[in-house]
User: Fold these one by one.
Assistant:
Number 1:
Amino acid sequence: MDVQNSQAEPIVAGQPRAADAVRVQILATEHWSLLASRGLIWNEIFNRANMFLTTLSAAVVALALVSQATDYGDDFTLFALLVLPLVLLLGIWTLIRLSVARNEDVWMVVGMNRLRHAYIDIAPDLEPYFVTSCYDDMASVMKSYSPMAPSRLVRILASTPVLVGTINSALVGVIVALVVEAFDHSPLVHVTAGAFGAAVAGVVFVAIIPFREMDRLERGLETNFPPPATAPAAD
């Protein structure tokens, strides 16, 4: 008699249950596939952020050279208003892609949490050795995604999309200040306008977009393996 067939157990659907060794092999293959996908996602995140920061650095150097040649005159303002909006546009594209990539990365973590749940189903005695969660509710996923983050707010504010969003907000402030300066040379007016523009952009790029993306991710997450309910304390 075949050893694997002797270990097979019927399930509700009437199909034979694969041997545990086969199940572990299949699960491990999927686990490595998710790890490879996460590696590609993080590589893209780093490359996108690096490309944006490199472009920003080149723009700042160019502005510094032009400012010396024009003594911060009208030609400098015109050059800055040609260059900075292009950098801002690249920053917005980068922010959008980073937000999407981060959601994709979280989905990979959801998949790995489910795989760990399957491992524990096969070998329950191994559960104490896992340092990441085996449940797929959002709290458990975030525990696996960033186990040392003290809160959701800190986790979001420390993310790469928020960093790029902060830089974009500063760019908006500079552009607004330059536009206002072209019509009103009062330092107080264009500095105030620039600060207001940066603050409004900061609310959009740093607060609204990241939190909306996180809420959208939570709404789209279907929990298949919720954590067990906490037992009430005995009197």
Number 2:
Amino acid sequence: MATDWLLSQNERMKKQGIFNWTLPAWVVTLQDEAPDGTTTVRRVNVCPSAGVCAKHCYALGSDSGYIRFPAARARHLRNLRMVLDTPLLWQERMAVELRHPRYQPDSENGKLGHIRIHDAGDFFDDAYTLMWLEIMRGAPEGLTFYAYTKEVSRFRRLVEPNPPANFKYVFSRGGKEDVLIDPTRDRDADVFLTLEDLKAAGYSSQAASDLLAVHGPPRVGMTVNRHRKGMTASFGELQRQRDAEAASRRERQQTKARSSN
């Protein structure tokens, strides 16, 4: 009987010897049926700080494996339900699973001992983030965890004061909190249309290895694997445009309100 692992590998991660934990992307609708037959509906925002990235997210595209393969989608929904409905059980299962030999570093067999948290989804609330920090601190020696995240303010509060020694992270652009990213001290990642655009913006490509996001240069970029409809610039630039438009609208509204008084 196959083991029901919490951590998995897509083709790219398998080639690089990396395991990953995945949630569904962005806003998810969960239907729950009670013993009496009544149904309740929950809407969960798994990426609360998503900005322009939500419109162009690879995990939401019709060509994405998350959409094309029902079994993968079901597994991601299962993961989210575990975190929401039985968080302590999920935390215990994860801690136990990480002690399995398949996750331990073994350079001769291409096992790097790296766990990527979220190739979709994000650290969507404080409790979930704190559970991951506890899991990392109790993980076997030799394991390294890493993540891309748009939860800048949450990480400022919960992670930066005392980050686990085995946790590396990079802030990814295209979110509502891009303005909080400090390029003088933060690692940041952006998504570009072309490699030429990426290099012109002063970023280094992580195409050779996903681990360059946390072990390579502080500004790392990637190119879209397929053209995203309506994507005319990098995530970071599109978010700056959206933020500027929102600020302009607020200013017009404030001016109108003052003139009517």
Number 3:
Amino acid sequence: MEETLVYSRSLYDEQNLDKDIIYKLILKHDQTSSKLKKLKDYYLGKHAIENHTRRSNLPNFKTVANHAKDIADTATGYFMGNAIRYPKTDDMDIEDLLEAFDSADVDSTDSDNALNMAIYGRAYEYIYVKEGENELVTRSLEPENTFIVYDDSIEQKPLFAVYYYQTKDDVTEESYYQAQVVTETLQYSMSLREQKKESEEGVPHSLEGLPIIEYRNNRYMVGDYEQQISLIDAYNSLMGNRVNDKEQAIESILVLYGAALADTPEEAREAMEILREEGLLELPKDASAEFLKNVLDEATVEVLRKALKEDIYTFSHVPNLSDENFAGNTSGVAMEFKLLGLEMITKTKERYYIKSLHKRIQIFANYYNWSQIYENAKAIIPQFSRGLPKNLLELSQIISNLKDKVSLRQLISLLPFVEDPDAEIKALEKEKETAQEEPTFSQNLPYEEGVTDGQSEVLGEAESPEDGSGDGPGRANRKATRRNTQAGK
């Protein structure tokens, strides 16, 4: 959980930002960025066990079971495995908006945002005009170097955003912060040192509203595995010690009873080398030798390992998909119960993400002068679809049962392989129109084309024998008719 950075609106002057305040805010955020860096390190497999030390002559395996990455990737895939859909409405044309989103590659940005939310508990998106062009593009920024400052009102409205990084002067060897500060209308570039602070004049960024948007994973901006790090460390330690014990068992200590290996340390080292190479030891008659063995209670260790692993996934609410409970062909309802915890935290992600998406829509609409979309941004309801394998047979049965009870568009949208339900409906209607326009041919049409009116009468009589049978005399008459027709030609 991170404290929200707040600044008094009464003291805030967008045209003349106080550089000392910006510098202090950066220092405050930089103090908490170590926690964010730790979260990223755990995702990348850099865990605390890598710093574990033992005596130089003891084995020291540093096993890393990267549950953090598994949890983050599973939660991200479930939440944003499929691109967000924006359904069209009769009241508003959003085709231009969707094309602008495609041009800005928002799907990739959404995927990066979702992963940052899982790791850090928050994500930041920067919307800007592409250099040398007039199109908007989006980019996901690193939360380690980005923060938003809110006002001190009860609504906590955003005042400005800061993206910074630490650099070094090659001449003076002095470290300082280079920062980009954006407000609702201006953008500043600042070089901030403790004694000297330089800033360019604010440049209009032509985007109404703050172009850096914050996406929260939940209310307190907690990452998906942040509270399980101690359990992950315990699991790594257990597995590392387990391997170390196995290695030590292999290199057991040899104990001699009633005999000495050598008289001097030098002779003992030489004797141990010979013993290691030859594997033979000659002892006096009454002497004996044995290895000291560390008895390992594998059953107890395995119980503890399973308990730790279960707790890691249980308290993260992200299921272990490699668990035996997910094996086999599970029905849709049973799968929903197994994914209930993940579904709950994903719903929370959705709620906060939609709130920020409306800000993105407004920025795009304002830049491209789409007044109707800008004023009714909240009327656009993004649709999320879960990244799960679908049982198409079960889904087809559901659609069949809902026919004439639910709109066709809604039924088609349930199909995972249909990306655009509206386009699919149009294609379906076009196929029906084409099928109606095509002429219907009789099965006997090629045969009847060569038959005269008189012969048709004979044919009609031949095809209606008194006994009602389609074989016998009727079939013979049809053959005779065909011969007469060919002779007439």
Number 4:
Amino acid sequence: MWEDIKSSWYTGGMLYKLIWVNVIVFILINAAIILTKLGDITLPVGINDGFGLAVTSNLQILLSRPWTIFTHMFVHIDVFHLLINMMLLWWMGQIYSAEVGSRRLLSTYLMGGLAGFLVYFLAFNILPGLRSSLDKDSISYALGASAAVMSIFTATATINPNRKIRIILFGAVELKYIAMVYVLFDYFGISQGDGVNAGGKIAHLGGALFGYLLVTFDKKGVNLASFLESVIDWIMSSLPTKSKSVDIKKRRRPSGSSRKLKFWRNLDFRKKPQPKTRSNSTKSDEQFNLEKKERAKRLDLILDKISRHGYDHLTKEEKRFLFTESKKG
């Protein structure tokens, strides 16, 4: 089992990695809960604040725990909360990643979670009804991947609104209607629960709104996640990798481009068929070298495009060509 887990982590795409991070954090947090209960141990952090990983609407505490702005979107206490979020992430993540690639999947998840937090934070500090819903001296905390997952959901529905998904008892339903139902559940959920739950629903809507805006602006040539994706590129291009890649030293490409090629090939979970090639024993050396030069030139152009705009802006044919070249060498 452990070997299967390691294999899915190293060979799987970003979708697998996001799910595994959520699951591992869930296991560790529940292990801490069990230890504190059975050992009667008192810790400075606990369940309410996700053992120091959940984010809060209290500015003073937030400034002392800035990491929670990111960590909260990987934290779950309840198993059903985790299960629902991961099922939805797996369901929509496959469709979304197939359209835009692993890089955009990761940036959408993170930016959606950040958008959900921002809406939650502003709501609790501006709307008096939410503040008054808290008990005296109590503090509101938010955790879970719901806002991040909702951003992927609405982004997927915005890209493919008419794509039909088969649902038990309902048959084939267009994706835009499924997303609409999920959004409406969160919208009406604001009035159904107490103020604390309402804050969570508001965060979900913030993530959903970001997913829609991300795709809408992207169609106009504006990338709302460009800064975060640049940071991701910088971090990942600095990390060592063991995978094979195209030997681009002969093509005088900078080493950063080589690492980017390795990185995106590793993260892309889609297994595209490699185009079949036919050998031609009568092909002259001149023709062979000419074709090799043309492939090298095309590869350079694709790598430049990745450097300027990101992997998700490649066409399907360019991605297929990149995958084929990465298998050589």
